[in-house]
Amino acid sequence: MDKNPEIELRFSRAADSVFIRELSIVAFRPYGDYGDVVPDWHISGNSITVIACFEGAPLGFAMVSKPFSRYDHNNSSELLAIAIEASWQGRGIGRFLLKEIENVALEAGIMTLFLHTAIDNRNARKLFSDSGYRVWQVKKGFYPLGQDACVMAKKL
Ligand SMILES: CC(C)(COP(=O)(O)OP(=O)(O)OC[C@H]1O[C@@H](n2cnc3c(N)ncnc32)[C@H](O)[C@@H]1OP(=O)(O)O)[C@@H](O)C(=O)NCCC(=O)NCCS
């Protein structure tokens, strides 16, 4: 985090749903309308969200589901979403947030983290593959706007 020593990470509060909604609308727009879906996950009681802030103002978030057993793995979970505001991208904050949400997942007993990302989302795929995620399967036409997704997985 040398490039951004002043970025702070904290667990989300209910009031962060407004920020999560606004960022989800913009960040996931290429793939569909996620303005209701992601805030619904946030308040579902089945997820944990970490917020990245600069001087108290949120600029990004990462969200994992609570442990479940899926894809034949016990104690697994899904990285439901990760997004950084466009003006803050490319400064190492996404990588910082990903590492932190992995630590949070480990503390919650999660051993394997899955995620879906669009095959054409090159920035995200590079972040995930550089961070140790490997392609698990491909889902054709997964997103509301028709893009294919790959499921990636990492043993924490
Ligand atoms: C994916 C996302 C969270 C990455 O956040 P970020 O803060 O920009 O990422 P970082 O600055 O930490 O970069 C981490 C790595 O991601 C990749 N990356 C990020 N931005 C990139 C860019 N503009 N061009 C190329 N690679 C990029 C690189 O591998 C980078 O590592 P490097 O700097 O060592 O090359 C951010 O681009 C985003 O919010 N995108 C929109 C939402 C989204 O697609 N989320 C993922 C699907 S759930």
> What is the CATH third-level topology name?
Aminopeptidase
Q: In CATH's first tier, which class applies?
A: Alpha Beta
The major β-sheet equals: 8 strands, mixed
Structural class: alpha+beta
Extended strand count: 8
CATH superfamily: Gcn5-related N-acetyltransferase (GNAT)
Task: Give a list of the ligands.
Answer: coenzyme A
The figure for the number of domains is 1
Give the CA-based shape.
globular
Poorly predicted regions: none
Tell me what portion of residues adopts beta-strand conformation.
35-45%
Calculate the terminal CA-CA distance, rounded to whole Å. Answer: 21 Å
Helical run tally: 4
Mean pLDDT: 93
What does this structure look like?
26% of the residues lie in helices and 37% in strands. Strands 1, 2, 3, 4, 5, 6, 7 and 8 form an eight-stranded mixed β-sheet that branches. Strand 4 and strand 5 form a beta hairpin. It is built from four helices and eight strands, in the order E-H-H-E-E-E-E-H-E-H-E-E. The two termini are 21 Å apart. The protein is α+β, with helices and mostly antiparallel strands and 156 residues long. The chain has a single domain, classed as Gcn5-related N-acetyltransferase (GNAT) (Aminopeptidase), CATH 3.40.630.30. Bound molecules: coenzyme A (COA). Coenzyme A (COA) binds next to strand 5, helix 3 and helix 4.
